[in-house]
Design goal:
This protein is about 50% helix and about 5% strand. The two termini are about 30 Å apart. The strands form 3 sheets. Strands 1-4 form a two-stranded antiparallel ribbon. The chain has a two-stranded antiparallel ribbon with strand order 2-3. A two-stranded antiparallel ribbon has the order 5-6. The protein is mainly α.
Length: about 240
């Protein structure tokens, strides 16, 4: 993905929206411990490259009661590389969103937003189980009435699917669609007033800011969902806990 985005930037001789967003997603993984601000929301495969959580260094973070067990951050799985992988989901969803906007030009941005969120959830449903069944990570809790395979280590909370689409991807889709009709994208308004040498860096910073705000909103929604969780699955494999 990085190679593709760099080639696009070189071809267009500017930092593109996608490149700025991608850089922002890479640099937003530091927020991952916010996901379990109060309760353990996700557990990672201990056999993958990981480090002990840096949550205690985030002001106000107190973490879940893990019975003295260390909490891990996965470098190559659900915590680390998963953030830039969101770009694949964004591209798939944006392609569908753009087709809908062309076929329904009279639809309001709000209606397009809700439609994009619905399609995003449908796209996420077959994608996220790939990580679960591969043992990359697992959700130790989930609101039972709205959880697939509830009570098992591979359970999938549907509220997580909805939150990821509604809060994480759909707002970026609508923003990018609105910017298509503007001479200067809203995200890059400040960079258009800067000198030429600094402009690429200001554009990258704009993407970093956008990604971090969206990721923060998504993680805070996970904190709220964690308050509705059920019991810890009895069949949780030892390498996930």
């Amino acid at each position: 993905m990085g190679i593709v985005l760099i080639r696009r930037c070189l071809r267009e001789r500017t930092v593109t929206f996608d490149a700025a967003l991608y850089m922002g997603l890479v640099l937003s993984m530091w927020q991952d411990p916010i996901m379990y601000w109060n309760k353990l929301y996700v557990v990672y495969n201990q056999n993958l490259p990981n480090v002990e959580t840096w949550g205690p260094y985030i002001p106000g973070w107190h973490g879940p009661d893990a019975a003295g067990q260390p909490i891990y951050e996965s470098v190559a799985g659900g915590s680390g590389l998963a953030y830039p992988i969101v770009m694949v989901w964004f591209w798939l969803q944006y392609k569908l969103y753009r087709q809908i906007a062309r076929r329904r030009p009279h639809w309001s941005n709000w209606r397009l937003f809700m439609t994009a969120a619905g399609f995003g959830a449908l796209i996420d449903l077959p994608l996220e189980p790939l990580f679960l069944f591969a043992g990359v990570f697992a959700y130790p809790g989930g609101y039972p009435p709205l959880t697939l395979f509830a009570g098992h280590w591979y359970q999938l909370p549907l509220l997580e699917v909805l939150s990821a689409s509604l809060v994480l991807v759909a707002p970026i889709l609508v923003l990018r669609r609105i910017d298509q009709a503007r001479p200067v994208p809203w995200l890059f308004t400040t960079s258009s007033r800067t000198t030429t040498p600094a402009r690429p860096f200001v554009r990258l910073l704009a993407g970093v800011g956008l990604a971090n705000v969206v990721i923060l909103a998504y993680l805070l929604s996970n904190v709220a969902i964690a308050e509705l969780d059920g019991s810890f699955p009895r069949d949780m494999p030892s390498w996930l806990w």
